[in-house]
Each structure stands twice: as C-alpha cells, then as structure tokens.
Amino acid sequence: MSNRAFSGTYRKAVIIDDEIDTCLLLGLALQRFGIMSLRAHTLEEGLAKAAEEQPSLIFLDNNLPDGIGVEQIEKFREKAPTSRLVMITAMSGLRERALQSGADGFVEKPLDLSKIEQILQ
Q: Which of 80, 83, 64, 78 minimizes the C-alpha distance to 22?
C-alpha cells in the first residue's frame, strides 16, 4: 500500500480489465459493500469512464488490449484526481513500480477477496 490511506465511504468503482470473469468477480465483491461498479475492457474506455463518473475507486489491470495500465496511472490521476487507484495484475514484480507511479494499492491475481475487503476497510 502507498502512504495514502483508504478512508471514507466508497460509492462507485470503475473496473478496467479485459477479463470478464475478473470484472464479474470483483463487481460482486464490491456489491457486498454497497459499491456500484462499472466495467471497462480497454484503457481508452476506462479513462473515459473515470473522467465521466469520477468514481471513488478505480481497479486497473496492467495488460490491456490497447496498452499497459501501469504506464497510464498518471493519466487516470489527471482524469479522476480524487479516485483511489488499485492495480490488479498477475505480475507480482510490478508492485513497486505501480506504487511509485501513483497507485494507492496493489492486488495480485488471481484475486483474493479478503485482500479486496482489506482495501475497502
């Protein structure tokens, strides 16, 4: 985790992942906490939804059809400056780079729902 703490009530999240199963699983987990989730399957779509919706949370995968998520963290910060951004990826060696690039959290795939719950609390 970065030094930015997760606090407050989350109401809306944008999940950016090209794997539909991951989006569904994460969406169901968020729903248990009363958080509405929207899905995007590309960086372009995710940036547009983040800018339009200004979600409380953004879950960003790294390997997407139109680019690399960790390389776009700064753009997400510009489009949705108050959103908390969590990298979700199978690439465990990416943790430090993601956090240094501005991510607030990092969760490895396959997703562990207890880690998602920790982020939300």
A: 64
Closest CA to 84 of 60, 57, 106: 57
**pLDDT, tens only, 20-59:** 999 999 999 999 889 999 999 999 999 999 999 999 999 9
Tell me if 43 sits within 8 A of 64, measured CB to CB: yes
Tens digits of residue pLDDT in 53-94:
999 999 999 999 999 999 999 999 999 999 999 999 998 799
Which tokens hold the place of 52?
A: 């339009």
Strand pairing of 67-68 and 105-108?
Answer: unpaired
Alpha carbons 51 and 76: distance in angstroms, whole number = 8
The answer to whether 107 touches 117, Cβ cutoff 8 Å, is no
C-beta separation of 4 from 84 below 8 A: yes
